[in-house]
Amino acid sequence: SLVESLIWVLACHWIHPGLPVGFRQYSRATRRMLLSYSWKSLVIQIAAILRLKLNAVVLAAFLNASVVTTYAIGERLATYFVEFISSLVGNLSPLFSRYTPDRHARLIDDFRLATRLSVVAATLVASAMVFYGAAFIDRWMGPGYGSSYRVMVILTIPLAIDVMQTPSIGLLYGISRHDITAALAAVGGVTNLVLALLLARPYGIYGVAVATAAAVLLVKLVLQPVCVCRALGMTLAEGYGDLGATLARTLAPQMLFFLVVRRWVTPDYTRLMLLVAVQTIVSVPVAVFWALGRRDLAFITAALRQRRATRLSAVTPGEASLP
What we know:
globular, mainly alpha
């Protein structure tokens, strides 16, 4: 909205008081530069609409409105998962934009670490959704919504691959490769729409879910890793190796835990929350330590200590003496 945009401008001016804001700074060169970014961002937003927002329209057009609710339950849960992991990982564009060419090796190391962290977070949440999703939907919506769970699973698995590569998008933005991001988004959006139109009538809600899954996997598992590895000068073995090894090491303890407790998974909120809590306490630390390793954990610990030291140094001596 206009008010929100005005708040952003005021916030930027408050953070950087010397930043000039006014029509005197307007120039054709600046306009062309801004438009070169804005049209690519517009393509990305349109592609996002094609990927998820039009699925319900396709279902209503080819089948009937009654199936939209069944599909929307599974789709919405999968979307909540994406939003949660995206907010957890955060926008890494400012981090990657600060690296100069002489620090390229450090850029690659930090990108690979951020990717491993994203894989761990996405795998932990996605596995819990698949493990407990059927019982949760049964308790939430009542019996008869097994189709919604299957839609959720079909969408959650590829969307987990998507959010695992959140650092890739931040990297492409950070190094000003918006053109790659826009092209990938366009391919994904168009592929999703075309496949949904082809699969909706013969396969119903599952066909539309598979269309989205196939589009996401094409972009996030095939095209995007190639583009990112080329942009960074990495080999595909390094890119896929980080993804696959971290995924396997994170997923294995979760699957083992679920095999042990699956007999106690029932449509009961209290029991489901208790199982998730126990899984978090027991298997999550094992997955994190095994998936990341000592080097990554030592780096994270050092970064947290440095952040804490920086905050303490900003505190006045009188405040620092307080308990």
